[in-house]
From TrEMBL, chain A:
Compartments in which it is found: Cell membrane
Family matches, as CDD domains: TM_PBP1_LivM_like
Record's GO cellular component terms: plasma membrane
Broad class of where this protein is predominantly found: membrane
Protein name: Branched-chain amino acid transport system permease protein
TrEMBL record, chain B:
Sequence ranges assigned to domain ABC transporter in this UniProt record: 6-245
Gene3D superfamilies in the cross-refs: P-loop containing nucleotide triphosphate hydrolases
Protein's name according to its UniProt entry: Branched-chain amino acid transport system ATP-binding protein
Keywords assigned: ATP-binding, Nucleotide-binding, Transport
Species per Swiss-Prot/TrEMBL record: Geodermatophilus dictyosporus
GO biological process per UniProt: D-alanine transmembrane transport; L-alanine transport; L-isoleucine import across plasma membrane; L-valine import across plasma membrane
Coiled coil location: none
């Protein structure tokens, strides 16, 4: 396999020659993972399936944050606000109107996008510490709203009594069916973000991350691109929030709070910012430690997370995605040494 | 008579009491190969920033092909056809050579506003051509971080050209290039179509006189002289600006600081 890649790289002067086969090869792990995820409910116990569903929900949220942090270079501390907005919207719609899954997810995504469009207009104009502070403030405002608007959100008790999600009119009561619904939406959301990051706009976002003044001198308006990225990230975070309401059927202010946003940021850094798939692994680690391992440690889950984080920063400065980067770099060096004997 | 492509009228930029650029009036006709020279601190790079819009003017107007662009932000001016290379390489260092040029090329040739991946055949073809022109085709896949200083300067030129500019501002493009590399650069700029107007700031006067058909000398933010290369070479005022007064004897002495290159 490696020799095929090296050969096409050596013979094909045109980059198109080398790209096609390697991108097909790169799709293989993704397909394997997808097949494993689809098959999981057949193998796992209902509780484990639910945990896996929660991982996917949180992973989609983390990947949407990665579009901001890793691709665009906008570290947001308040991204949980849009997750929370999506979760509450989906929960309220499910209770008051319909619990049809597709509707819930779309409404949640729309709510997240609208919230991000309203707040991002200002936030995206700032940068550095000011961006951190503004997003933190937005997050706090949404958190305060969720706790004080008792009549709408249920206050600190949370929004409970969310009915089981329906698909085509049938309520999904079994953990496995809910999981498949979550998985389907996760795959769609992830694919959407992946397409954006590989698109010309994604290239421009990376350019802004690396060198915003230069992008301006090339004729790009950084504000417009950052704003689009912010709204897309908000929309997908909203979708993830909607999935949370579907999966957990209880939405509390914590979901919109700083801790959720910080954990997502942790997942992004743990997984490797900018890679999109890395944060999925990061989210898995975070949720496993917090939800699965945490209870057995008498509430010391966060301590373990902290240790994992410190180790990751020291040992994997580019996160899990950095491990794949190492093997790619080794291949590139080999190819280069072969070219110049 | 059409309006000059670039027209500066009374352009000034003050930093407190310091007049970095002071009342510069200058017309550069379409298709010109114009050089901007002057001692360090003469305000050459600042003047470029005022033209591109990365720095606002304190006074005066900047016009591009007869349109007043003084109030336009930098990216809008870039879209009107102003492109530049910067004195200190300013590239996208985590990305490959090809991606760097593609970012510039996709604005004109591709679907830059597309949210889904595109083949961008036209843009990529242009990138291939430009990389061949500047001599980086074998480095296409290398990350910018791996490039030598000279290669980065070449890439900088390719990025600037990928914008398909009407007005190309080159700020010391040959700085740090080897003689072979700067010869290649001169060839490249010479080969540019007459529709591209070039303004170049350069300390290497061999490059300047190889390219420029007109020269403006800046000194302490003011225009000292605008003329043909021959006039500039012959000017006493220019020699004074570069070498200070009372050193004419040094200047005529071939072994002296005349080696700075004004001769």
């Amino acid at each position: 396999m490696e020799s095929i890649v090296a050969d096409t790289a050596a013979t094909g002067g045109r980059r198109g020659g080398g790209r096609r086969p390697s991108s097909l090869l790169r799709a293989v792990p993704a397909v394997v993972v997808l097949v494993l995820l689809v098959a999981a409910p057949f193998v796992l116990a209902p509780f484990a399936t639910t945990v896996l569903g929660r991982i996917l929900v949180f992973a989609l949220f983390a990947v949407s944050l990665d579009l901001l942090v890793g691709v665009t270079g906008l570290p947001s501390l308040g991204h949980a606000a849009y997750f929370g907005v999506g979760a509450y919207t989906a929960g309220i719609v499910a209770i008051e109107v319909t619990s049809e899954g597709l509707v819930l997810v779309l409404v949640a995504g729309l709510a997240g996008a609208v919230a991000a469009a309203a707040t991002g207009w200002l936030a995206v104009r700032s940068s550095g510490v000011f961006f951190l502070m503004l997003t933190l403030a937005v997050g706090e405002i949404v958190y305060q709203l969720t706790t004080t608007l008792d009549s709408v959100t249920g206050g600190s008790n949370g929004l409970y009594g969310i009915p089981a999600v329906r698909v085509g009119g049938t309520a999904l009561t079994l953990a496995g069916y809910v999981y498949w619904f979550v998985l389907a939406v996760f795959v769609l959301g992830f694919t959407a973000l992946w397409l954006v990051s590989r698109s010309p706009v994604g290239g421009a976002l990376r350019g802004i991350r690396d060198n915003e003044p230069r992008m301006r001198s090339l004729g790009y308006s950084p504000f417009r691109y950052k704003y689009v990225a912010f709204v897309i990230a908000g929309a997908v975070a909203g979708v993830a929030g909607g999935l949370f309401a579907v999966q957990v059927r209880l939405v509390t202010p914590t979901e919109a709070g700083f801790t959720t946003g910080a954990l997502a940021l942790l997942a992004v850094i743990l997984g490797g910012a900018g890679s999109l798939w890395g944060p999925v692994l990061g989210a898995a680690v975070v949720v496993l430690v917090r939800d699965a391992l945490g209870p057995t440690l008498e509430g010391h889950g966060p301590l373990v997370l902290g240790i994992v984080f410190v180790l990751a920063v020291y040992l994997l400065p580019r996160g899990f995605a950095g491990l794949a980067g190492i093997s790619a770099a080794v291949q590139r060096r080999r190819a280069a040494s072969r070219r110049t004997p | 008579m059409t309006a000059p492509l670039l027209s500066l009228s009374g352009v000034s930029r003050h930093f407190g009491a310091l007049k970095a650029v002071d009342d510069v009036t200058l017309d550069v006709p379409t298709g010109a190969r114009h050089a901007l020279i002057g001692p360090n601190g003469a305000g050459k790079s600042t003047l470029f920033k005022l033209v591109t819009g990365s720095m606002p003017v304190s006074a005066g107007t900047v016009s591009l092909a007869g349109t007043d662009v003084t109030g336009l932000p930098e990216h809008a001016r870039a879209r009107l056809g102003i492109s530049q290379t910067l004195q200190h390489s300013s590239l996208f260092t985590t990305q490959t050579v090809e991606q760097n040029v593609l970012l510039a090329a996709q604005r004109r040739h591709g679907s830059r506003a597309s949210l889904v991946p595109r083949r961008q055949a036209a843009a990529r073809e242009r990138v291939d051509g430009l990389l061949a022109d500047v001599g980086l085709e074998h480095r296409r896949g290398s990350p910018v971080a791996d490039l030598s200083h000279g290669e980065r300067r070449q890439l900088e030129v390719a990025v600037a050209l990928a914008c398909e500019p009407r007005l190309l501002l080159l700020d010391e493009p040959a700085a740090g290039m080897s003689p072979a590399e700067s010869a290649r650069l001169v060839e490249l700029v010479r080969a540019l179509s007459e529709t591209v107007t070039v303004v170049i700031v350069e300390h290497d006067l061999d490059v300047v006189f190889a390219l420029a058909r007109s020269v403006t000398v800046l000194h302490l933010g003011r225009v000292l002289l605008t003329g043909t290369p021959e006039q500039v070479r012959a000017s006493d005022a220019v020699q004074e600006a570069y070498l200070g007064t009372g050193r004419e004897s040094l200047f005529t002495d071939t072994a002296g600081p005349a080696a700075l290159g004004v001769s």
